[in-house]
Amino acid sequence: MKQKKVYLFPEGTKEQKYLLGGKGANLAEMTNAGLPVPFGFTITTESCLDYYRDGEVLSTDLLDQVYVALDELEQLSSKQFGSNVNPLLVSVRSGSVFSMPGMMDTILNLGLNDQTVVGLANLTQNPRFAYDSYRRFIQMFSNVVLGMDHYFFEEVIDEIKEKRGFTEDTELGAEDWQQVIQRYLKMVEAKTNSPFPQDPKIQLSQAIEAVFRSWNNTRAKIYRKINKIPDDLGTAVNIQLMVFGNLGDDSGTGVAFTRNPSTGERELYGEFLINAQGEDVVAGVRTPNPISDLKNQMPSIYKQFVELSSLLEEHYGDMQDIEFTVERGKLYILQTRSGKRTAQAAVKIAVDLVDEGKIKKEEALLRIDPDQMDQMLHPRIDPNVTLKVIAKGLPASPGAASGNIIFDADEAERLTEKGEKVVLVRPETTPEDIHGILAAQGILTSRGGMTSHAAVVARGMGKACICGCDQLKIDLRAETVTIGDLTLQKGDQITIDGSTGQIIQGNVPLIDPNLSLEFEQLLKWADEVRRLEVRANADNPTDATKAREFGAEGIGLCRTEHMFMEADRIPIVQQMILAENEEEQKDALAKLLPMQKEDFKGIFSAMNGLPVNIRLLDPPLHEFLPNMEELVVELTKMQVEKVNPQQYVAKEALLKKVRALHEFNPMLGHRGCRLGMTHPEIYEMQVEALFLAVIESKKAGITVIPEVMIPLVGHVQELKALRRMVINVGERIQQETRESFEYTIGTMIEVPRAALTAEEIAEQADFFSFGTNDLTQTTFGFSRDDAEGKFLHTYVEQKVLPENPFIVLDQAGVGSLIKMATVAGRRKKQGLKTGVCGEHGGEKSSIQFFHDTGLDYVSCSPFRVPIARLAAAHAELNNSVKKN
Ligand code: ADP
Ligand code: MG
Ligand code: MG
Question: Which residues are catalytic?
């Protein structure tokens, strides 16, 4: 049997989006639900793949099936394709599986030519409309099929407008448009060396082909890369009867979201233009009117639209993004899809839909991608600061962004690569600007509304964006933007607040984010579902407090070396390292001890009642000393300048020590528990400070659950010795103070040998904490800095590795070690506590793995705690979905 390549709208359903594309599947669904959708048919995504497989030619079989469907359109509409009396006109629309707004091409008014346009003019008694439609068609067709830039066409219109003294396109009459058309046709012929195609069937097949080809245009490819959409899906093509919003003042076109896509607020949110056709709204050429105006101008249409849009939302159980057109007082729906939204809106909408009884809590949780949450945890403008607001536009995508003003997408990309922060400022953006939008911190436009290209794309990327700020006079040639008396140049600093629409001169202090009520609610649901405990990595009371606010259930890793690095400590730490004799060293340690104790007390107090895991000193000692090369340079300088010999000798001694501590391979060198073995006095001091802090905190009424962690153990004997040391210090302190306290001792599993001998190690450990960063380095045998700096990107690009293993856990290798060690450790010690500290603890696919492996907790940076809570819930839900 022949493959079915063409589906009339009533033949499809919304489930068929892989075959019909999202747009086609939804047009089918709406048609079957009885909505007013102009009739049409869809060419399958398979046909697009066939087209590429066949060497970019349309098969005759496909064209035959298209013509059969076209007959159907003719009969239903009582119009004929190519007729001079009653011409059938169609749109040819791209539509892939996942929506890629504006990335591929669409052509409207196809079927018009020098003859049919006359028929259309007579039929509608509206020549102005007919010629306007024809010139739009020539323009779109020439752009999409013949590859001519819009710019040439806009220039012609601008010229004629100027000659006639008009400012708006809508002021042009039939004769003006006829003039435009004559110029267009000549221009096309000159540019392409052949006349503009007049045969509608040729127009149609060329248009279909162009839509197929647009699957592989640069901007679509970039969009897919950014959004991780596979390249081998292909696009469907929808061919649909035209309805006309440009027939006069009783017609128009618009786009609306059933909820606010920026904030999630439950309100119809959209825009429309009277006497306009589809593209006008989204292209940002004219700034459209808010949808609420429609209420006054076309009250009954407005009412009908409100009803239809809530029907659609109900039907799909999600916020919809709807395109509509009004033709002479009749409403048509042209597209519906789940609307793109910011993370903030996604959360609010999901929670509200649960409250409204439309979806279940589990569904709400699964709808929120943990990765997207990152956006909500970005810094925001300090509300207590007085701002120098210079203008206000539409708050199109929330978040704050500061940077230098740049007017060009390429330049934005280039400067960002150099490390500059830029804000892209443009009259409007087009799909060609996508790389600049991606690079910029934020986007500001003077034209276009909340549904314009810039707004939609920015929201999708989670970038701050302000649109339609018509106070801005942008001069692209001079590269300046003027607001009243103020003129800003390229490179000047501005800040935009996409939540309020405020544009602020200069840089603005940003503060930490906080969680919205809805986000808190969603995370509470996540907590009810998840099994994995979520802790945070925090080295000081401030981070610990933040982590707790974000829902951390303890500290999974407190790196004590960060406490040594502080400016007032470094000299003492250096004294400790450089000490010539025991006396000097003891002196230094005695100074450090009370400092460490206070650090620990601060953290215990922030984590009152929750476990705190403290890791003893980990990095090699040379990290606390000055850099060797710099010292050499300094010494040479001192020699030349003949400074005080005493100073010189001291520096020389320092250099000697630095040289002695120099390691060939610091990552594999004298660090972690190896330091503890050779410098027990340092670990002893840390443990003493820790226990004294426990006692003092308890006295202050704080509940402390301390865990002492020994880093980098590879052999059980290391852990055995250091465990003994910790216990000895503990016993001594208990005797000295006559206080008692409880604690546990465990180890990081971060070298393969530890994982391989986990059973032995478990005998000496109360817990295992997988240090996945070092474990990845030591398992692969490459250092992270060298790998990421030199070859890892090649590996990922050539698909040698699927992802950067320092970001997404390598389950087959590193994961196997974790699984093995967990099983072996628990075999030896029932109830051995296991967790992960390291960035992987906040990454969703890794979290799924840790959940499946049966670990007790993950620990990540404070700002990723909410993400981890949600991802841990997903891990549980994904498994229960699989089971059912
Ligand atoms: P995109 O995916 O870029 O939104 P569309 O295929 O949806 O492209 O079409 C672009 C614009 O043209 C939209 O505003 C749409 O509503 C309008 N449009 C598409 N087909 C028709 C039609 N048959 N009649 C009237 N307007 C149409
Ligand atoms: Mg569309
Ligand atoms: Mg480590």
Answer: 453, 837
Superfamily grouping for domain 6-241: ATP-grasp fold, A domain (3.30.1490.20)
- Digit-coded pLDDT (tens) for 630-654: 888 888 888 888 778 888 888 888 8
* 334 CB near ligand 1 (under 6 Å): yes
Distance CA 116, CA 110 (A): 11
**CA-CA-CA-CA torsion for 305, 308, 312, 314, nearest 10 degrees?**
120
Supply φ then ψ for residue 327, to 5 degrees.
Answer: -115, 115
**pLDDT tens sequence across 741-758:** 999 999 999 999 999 999
279 lines ligand 1 (CB under 6 A): yes
CATH of 530-620+663-883, one of 1.10.10.10, 3.90.226.10, 3.40.50.800, 3.20.20.60: 3.20.20.60
CA distance linking residue 464 with residue 342, whole number of Å: 10
- Ligand 2 centroid vs 335 CA: distance in angstroms? 6
Domain ranges of the chain: 6-241, 252-338, 379-511, 530-620+663-883, 621-662
- pLDDT at position 852 over 60: yes
- CATH topology for the 379-511 domain: Glucose Oxidase; domain 1 (3.50.30)
Q: In whole numbers, what is the pLDDT of the chain averaged over residues?
A: 93
Contact partners, residue 281, CB within 8 Å, separation at least 6: 253, 254, 255, 271, 272, 273, 288, 449, 451, 452
The residue nearest atom 14 of ligand 1, judged by CA position, is 278
Digit-coded pLDDT (tens) for 233-256: 999 999 999 999 988 899 999 999
Atom 12 of ligand 1, nearest CA residue: 278
Q: How confident is the model at residue 405 (pLDDT cuts 50, 70, 90)?
A: very high
Choose which CATH entry (3.20.20.140, 3.40.50.12100, 3.30.470.20, 3.30.360.10) describes domain 252-338: 3.30.470.20
Determine whether the shortest distance from the Cβ of 26 to ligand 1 is under 6 A.
no
